């Protein structure tokens, strides 16, 4: 089953549990608009290459489309459709007035020079310029895109429009209309939810062990934050391999080492308490909390039964497959679902948009003070829905979101 079909199946299952209006279910099961763009880029060698990109606008019932741009060789329309659907649900779970969108370009950005990366970003921005804007559709960074790429997007879009439009994307650098706290917002939001859950379920105790898959933006921040909160980080990994330290590791040191060596898997010395492991082994480590912060479909029917963690925190989008959900549930593994766990990112993106539109700059403290209650309220809503429907947290998050979306769709479309 494709990623998008998987997502629609989850929508249908939640719809059945909550007895959702069939018309609303039909509307949520398809994107409002899907666009494929093919655009030429002149490479440093003088060769002209045509790249393929996508933008999917899933649903705007609750506000402008919102969602990141991914640069990856495996980006395709199906993946972007699934990611845009999750954005719609995510914004509704945290109750912010935005819809869902997502974009991507099929490219390995690591193979491009900075000049080529800039040219590709500007060409993609021109190709999707008629579809985006602060009141229409607001992109942001995702896997292998960052604040610099957002800066080029603002500049190119502003040229097309003939005026400065910083609110066309979020996730910008601070000096370019970005928000304090955006870089770590996804991880911070996940930490707020995890903390609340451990408290409410009586699972909070010192020295809980944590394994983090995907030591990138979200993964490295969450490892640092959890270590600062007294959790013990015993394993981390990136696309090139993993590191297991039975006595715990220091996330900031691991990040410095990764910067020098290119992979956390290289960050061990012979004879010490750390060893190099594969990504497959990392997912099966004995631990209290497994944080998934890489890509989709990392836990599937093939390895779900081997997961020994008690809790999974999904900072990545879609890291657990539909089939794996059933196995984890049977084995008593609690999954804090992506549309709740990683919603801190889009929440601070929303704060960035508000600051841009109001020409304001909030301090880091103001941002944190506004983010925490949003995430705590979302957790409480999802948890009480799970109790009401005797459902998993994922089903409850879908139901919470779909109730809000249903209200908005009915009010707008007179269903
Ligand atoms: P990133 O590019 O900074 O980091 C991704 C990391 O995953 C990299 O370190 C990469 O090496 C690693 N990785 C890739 N394949 C892997 C594999 N098979 N095994 C182990 N590691 C692997 O991206 P990011 O922004 O941290 O995003 C990570 C995930 O979080 C994505 O699913 C993204 O959609 C999701 N997410 C991110 C944000 C955000 O604000 N950054 C918000 C919401 C959701």
Describe the global form.
globular
Rg, alpha carbons: 21 Å
Q: How many runs of DSSP E, i.e. beta strands? A: 12
Provide a count of the helices. Answer: 14
Give the CA-CA distance, first to last residue: 31 Å
Small-molecule components bound: nicotinamide-adenine-dinucleotide
Residue stretches low in confidence (pLDDT < 50, at least 5 long) are none
Elements, N to C (H/E): HHEEEHEHEHHEHEEHEHEEHEHHHH
On the 0-100 scale, what is the average pLDDT?
96
Q: What topology, given as strand order, has the largest sheet? A: 9-8-7-6-10-11-12
Largest sheet: 7 strands, mixed
Structural class: alpha/beta
Helix coverage percent: 40-55%
Report the sheet-strand fraction: 15-25%
